[in-house]
Model the fold of this input.
Amino acid sequence: MENVQKTYTDFHERKHSKHVYPTEWVIRTILGKYPNLHLNTGSYKNSKILDLGFGDCRNMPLLNNCDFDIYGVDISDEIVTLGKKTLTELGISATLKRGVNANIPFDENYFDFLLACHSCYYVDKDTTFNDNLKEIFRVQKSGAFFIASLPAPNNFILKDCKRLDKGHVIITNDIYGLRNGYIFKTFEDEEEIIKTFSPYFKNITICKCEDNFWGVQINFFIVVANKI
Ligand SMILES: C[S@@+](CC[C@H](N)C(=O)[O-])C[C@H]1O[C@@H](n2cnc3c(N)ncnc32)[C@H](O)[C@@H]1O
Done:
């Protein structure tokens, strides 16, 4: 196993807790009404959704309340086992599997929705962000919704990062000590997101969140788009 994968596995094993609450931007996006957001909240029931990089399953209670048919992928067997334990405790049923952004263990044209909450920009060794996008495209049905967050400039996680090719960076100064050594794909602005996504996705809408929680600057873009 790669060192970077071990760090996240250890983190989830240490952190397993009763506090499993959805992320605010996911609640706003899945349930909210905004002029530039074109999600159809009436279409969730029995739709297949993949929670890519599901972590501690925090978004699954919300997905379950919306009556989605839930699937999840994360990077190690240990994270999958912990996720199953959490979901059993919560009384939620979902199919969880081990996989990575560039290699998702599902058939093509499978999902109606794909949620990537702070996860699709993790780029594995010998792959690029474009490989992740191609793989997400592969497993989605035509017209399916892709809902994702992406790091925006001056996010705390990017401090002192080492710049690589085409917006890829190596994280070196994560104040939580968790992601050092990981490769992320970063985006300068909305224009770059549209250019990168448009070979695979249409109806690309983007918003930007800039929060500061007690000194931690969290800047990210949210993208909602449909597979071509
Ligand atoms: C910041 S956490 C987000 C977790 C969860 N989506 C949430 O909202 O709390 C990033 C997650 O991505 C997973 N991850 C790391 N590298 C990945 C990869 N190459 N492919 C898929 N998931 C990855 C990590 O194990 C971790 O669970």
